[in-house]
Design goal:
Blueprint lengths: L13 E5 L6 H8 L11 E2 L2 E2 L5 H6 E4 L11 H11 L6 H10 L15 H13 L5 E5 L7 H16 L3 E5 L3 H7 L2 E6 L2 E6 L1 H4 L11
Parallel strand pairs: 1-6, 1-7, 4-5, 5-6
Antiparallel strand pairs: 2-3, 7-8
Helix pairs in contact: 3-5, 6-7
Length: about 210
């Protein structure tokens, strides 16, 4: 259960949400995405209530979550083409090639999900978000199954997103990723915010996570 949380995410800002399993991180992300409705209060996106079924939200909010979102019979390239077409991206071929290369998937463009490693599946989910327009990017533990080099590239990707004016809400277990990517960090414990501030201040050795997520 989440206690009341007052969180504003501005364009071009990355906020990281950390905490141990069961702290409420994923619940917060589902509410932020409009998938769950809070029992009290409300979530707004650009001045209107957040609802994942709102066409405006679908057009402008990208969510990276569970690998179960993959279609077993579609190749990597077909996944990206489907997302690009659904979001009206014209002449997407070159952009898809760019995203494949950016996520180190160009050698696996014709592979189906079952032929990918767990890290490559995670990269596919990120690629699906990158191939479409977005003003808000919601990331649910995107560092899972990524090796250290891929996590560094993920931090660079988030920095590039915020530089382009995209707001990023990053739910993560990885303290170093939060330090590299976010300008603000919240730490949850039992559904409550127990720390809120700059990552270097919040994620200290004697802080609420003991320096580690």
């Amino acid at each position: 259960m989440l206690h009341p949380i007052d969180l504003t995410l501005d364009a071009g800002e990355c906020v990281a949400v950390l905490g141990h399993n069961g702290s409420g991180k994923s619940t917060l992300l589902r509410i932020a995405a409009g998938r769950d409705t809070p029992t009290t209060g409300q979530v707004e996106f650009d001045g209107a209530p957040m609802d994942e079924n709102d066409p405006r939200v679908r057009a402008r909010v990208a969510v990276v979550g569970d690998t179960a979102a993959c279609y077993p019979d579609l190749t990597v390239r077909e996944h990206l083409r489907l997302v690009a077409t659904a979001h009206g991206v014209a002449d997407a071929g070159e952009w898809i090639d760019h995203v494949l290369a950016d996520r180190r998937l160009d050698g696996h463009a014709d592979a189906v999900p079952s032929a990918l490693s767990s890290g490559q599946l995670q990269s596919l989910l990120l690629a699906c978000a990158l191939v479409r327009p977005r003003d808000l990017l919601l990331l649910d533990e995107p560092e899972q199954r990524l090796d250290p080099d891929a996590r560094r590239r993920l931090a660079d990707l988030i920095a590039a997103e915020t530089a382009d004016g995209v707001g990023v809400l990053l739910v993560t277990h990885h303290a170093e990723l939060a330090r590299r990517a976010a300008g603000r960090a919240l730490v949850l414990r039992d559904g409550q915010v127990v720390a809120d501030g700059a990552p270097d201040d919040v994620l200290t050795a004697d802080g609420p996570l003991g320096g580690e997520a």
